[in-house]
Predict the structure of Actin cortical patch SUR7/pH-response regulator PalI.
Amino acid sequence: MGGGRPILGLLAMFFMAGAVLLIFLTLLGGTSNVIPLNDIYFLQAHTTNIPGAPGVSRWTFWNLCGVDADGKSQCGPSHPAFPLDPPSDRNFNTTANIPSQFIGTSHFFLMTRFMFPFILIGLSFAVGSLFIGLLAPCTRIGSLLSSSLAWIALMFQIISSCLMTAAYVEGRDAFSSNNQEATLGKKAFGFMWTAVACLILSSFLYCLGGVAGRDSGYASRSTRRRGFFGPRRTSSSRSRRNFANGNKDYV
């Protein structure tokens, strides 16, 4: 399996690079009014009947955006860890026509706020795994180190994706129950969960690369000990044989 380590390492790096790219795109969604960043969001809701709100509102990691005639987000100043909290001054600063599920609770606020640090931590480990992965096709230790970082990145990415899914699916249902049309952002959800799949594949491939290197080394050492045609006689066995022959001579 040692010959397969470079292939496993390159495949693992490919999936890790894909995960990093998808996480970056999701993280940067809403930071600029340019394609594709102005089309990446978590939740879209029709908020025409909410005082001071745009006709259609979109939530991202950074802000609450309106939507132009072309269906693209038009976002203002960015604020990190922007929450889904319609009644608060961070969103609409009113309770008029706000779904009752959002009023008097910090449930949505906490879930969407904690997404941000978790995705940053996961992304940092993923980037570290990607760079250390440059050693994976060449060395077993590179594969094992990259695998360890990839597993940690996967854990935080799963937490972020679960928080995102729980918060914004509940938010969509809350708006829908209030007769306000709401939909999930297909790109953001697709990117986040596809990144989870890429991290799983990358983690396993890095592990296989490390195991392949270990098995190859063990096999080569075993071959050297056994010799070409069979077990080699060690110096201790030769000395015992010579000692036995010497005893026969004395007899």
In short: Confidence is low (pLDDT under 50) at residues 215-219.
